[in-house]
C-alpha cells in the first residue's frame, strides 16, 4: 500500500529502517552464529546462507576492516538521542 507521508519524514523513516536492519543482522549474528541455532524470524535457507557467508574469507576481511575503523575513531557521538540539528535549533 501507499502512505501519505511528508518528504522529510519519509527520509527519516528510510534512514531509521536501514539502521534497524543493520542492528537486527548484528543481533542475529551475535546470538545465533556460534550456537548454529536459527532465530525463528530468519528462514532456514537464508540462515544457512548467512552461516556460509559469515564463515567466508570475504566476511572475515570485512569484519576486520570494521573493527580496525572503530579502533581509529578519535571521538564518539555522545550528544544523546537528539540530533545535532535538533540541539542547534533548540539553542
UniProtKB/TrEMBL annotation:
Superkingdom classification of source: Eukaryota
InterPro entries referenced in this protein's UniProt entry, alphabetically: Probable_transposase_24
User: What's one Pfam family the UniProt record gives for this protein?
Assistant: Transposase_24
Query: PANTHER family recorded for this chain?
Result: OS03G0714750 PROTEIN, OS10G0409366 PROTEIN-RELATED
UniProt-recorded name of the protein: Transposase, Ptta/En/Spm, plant
Amino acid at each position: 500500500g501507499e502512505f501519505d507521508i511528508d518528504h522529510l519524514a519519509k527520509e527519516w523513516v528510510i534512514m531509521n529502517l536501514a539502521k534497524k536492519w543493520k542492528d537486527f543482522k548484528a543481533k542475529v549474528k551475535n546470538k545465533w552464529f556460534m550456537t548454529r541455532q536459527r532465530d525463528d524470524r530468519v528462514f532456514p535457507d537464508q540462515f544457512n546462507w548467512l552461516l556460509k557467508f559469515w564463515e567466508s574469507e570475504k566476511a572475515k576481511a570485512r569484519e576486520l576492516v570494521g573493527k580496525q575503523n572503530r579502533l581509529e575513531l578519535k571521538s564518539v557521538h555522545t550528544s544523546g538521542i537528539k540530533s545535532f540539528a535538533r540541539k542547534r535549533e533548540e539553542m
